[in-house]
Design goal:
- By secondary structure, the chain is of the alpha/beta class.
- Helix content is 35%, strand content 23%.
- It has 4 helices and 18 strands.
- Helix 1 packs across helix 2.
- The chain starts with a helix and ends with a strand.
Length: 204
Amino acid sequence: MAIIVAVVATRFLFLSLPLGDFTGVVYTLIFIILFYLSSILIHRLFLYFFPLQEGEIRKQSKQEFVYHIYLLFYLLLFYSLTRSKVIPVPLMRLVYLMLGAKLGENTYSSGTILDPFLTIIGSNTLLGQDCVLYSHAIEGKNISHAVIRIGNNVTVGANAVIMSGVTVEDNAIIAAGAVVKKGEIIKAKEVWGGVPAKKIKTLP
């Protein structure tokens, strides 16, 4: 569906542009952009009518169907987009917003948010290089989802990992390389680090 939309839009909206020797390159770029925009729109419409909910996913349930479609979209289309490191950080903010992440003003990620639809981040927060946030947990045969909530003025260091259900309150710091376990609560102004991450100190 997304391919058809992209092809038709490119054909009828942009083929009349006088691009000279760069025609093929520009049309290809336009097609790729329209393809991803169409895919994101279809993805968001699907999640609007069939929302991915928090909690454990039961076998042969409606949520299992929703999860499989959600996963298909992400693995085939969006994973390569969010992990490519080709898109500048300010534009990645727009991509994550379109994918459903709730990001406050002046919040940016140079890491990867694997479940944008289940991620809520406040204002003036920075996710460092190659950090990873994922709101899903796969434990044996059990799959569950829990929203990650990060407050305002938080710094997440490079290569840190934040697991599902974690809450990080305002003005906290997560050190580079830290692994914050599932369901942890980091209070305001606390500094956490290590594997697994533990409280190091509280800022004044």
